[in-house]
Design goal:
By secondary structure, the chain is mostly helical. It has one domain (about 5-245). It is about 75% helix and about 0% strand. It contains eleven helices and no strands. The chain has helices at about 5-15, 25-45, 50-55, 75-85, 85-115, 120-135, 140-155, 155-185, 190-210, 215-225, 230-245. The longest helix has 29 residues, at about 155-185. The protein is globular and about 50 Å long.
């Protein structure tokens, strides 16, 4: 299993609720999620198309970034107010790391078992639905407790990393976010351009951020490795059962 890849990306995805820039936080999350899928696939020499990666990524119905740009000022203000409550976002961050870990684990397991053959986006959707069903039926308390303990112990480090990420993204987002609010919704080309700019910044800065979070990631890797094997056996069975349900073929 690609534990280090899964844990590292789960941590980065989990940081995104703490980024105090509504809309951009979801864009960063979608970028890291796609990278998680790509890296897991590459370890099994699976070549996935863009639509397959999107289908295996989080929040299919929202269309990730564009789903957050419906032009609803009320939604933007609600998100902004939530950003001001760091305690609530910290809890959301821990929940997101936990959920992402399970999703990444099951995607990796499905790839390892040969349960996914590239080239069929409908199959990618079925796998993602089955993974969500398996996650919804499992008790995540054990993993969540480990993640919460590790994050609480490294709170200053996490905050510092988030501040650095925010500073790196601030220059890109400020002018564009003002323009988007004036126009209600950006054009497709504008969305693609901003996504590319943000992706480039993350590509450049992620290695430094990963090094900064090295102790946290290593602690999580060690603690999660000590969890009972039976917990993950149950998870495997739940995924297999979900894939065997009618309509999953």
């Amino acid at each position: 299993m690609n534990q280090l890849v899964i844990i590292t990306h789960a941590v980065f995805i989990g940081l995104t609720p703490l980024i105090p820039i509504p809309v951009i936080d979801d864009l960063v999350k979608s970028i890291f999620y796609r990278r998680l899928i790509q890296e897991l696939a590459s370890t099994y020499r699976l070549s996935l198309r863009k639509d397959e990666i999107e289908a295996l990524s989080e929040e299919l119905s929202l269309g990730c970034f564009q789903g957050c740009l419906l032009g609803l000022v009320e939604q933007f203000l609600r998100r902004l107010l939530l950003k001001l409550s760091f305690v609530l976002e910290w809890r959301r961050s821990i929940d997101l790391v936990t959920r992402t870990y399970y999703v990444g684990y099951l995607i990796d397991y499905a790839f390892q078992r040969g349960w996914y053959a590239p080239g069929d986006v409908a199959q990618a959707v079925r796998l993602r639905v089955a993974i969500d069903q398996a996650c919804d039926s499992i008790n995540m308390t054990l993993v969540k407790r480990i993640i919460k303990t590790s994050f609480d112990r490294s709170s200053q480090l996490v905050r510092g990393t988030v501040r650095q990420m925010t500073d790196n993204l601030q220059g890109i987002t400020f002018q564009r976010s003002r323009a988007w609010l004036r126009r209600w919704t950006p054009e497709q080309s504008q969305v693609a351009q901003v996504e590319e700019e943000v992706s480039q910044v993350l590509e450049q800065k992620s290695p430094h951020a990963q090094a900064s979070l090295g102790d946290l990631i290593a602690r999580l890797q060690s603690s999660l490795a000590d969890l009972p094997k039976e917990h993950f056996d149950t998870l495997h069975h739940r995924l297999e059962a979900a894939l065997e349900q009618p309509g999953s073929d």
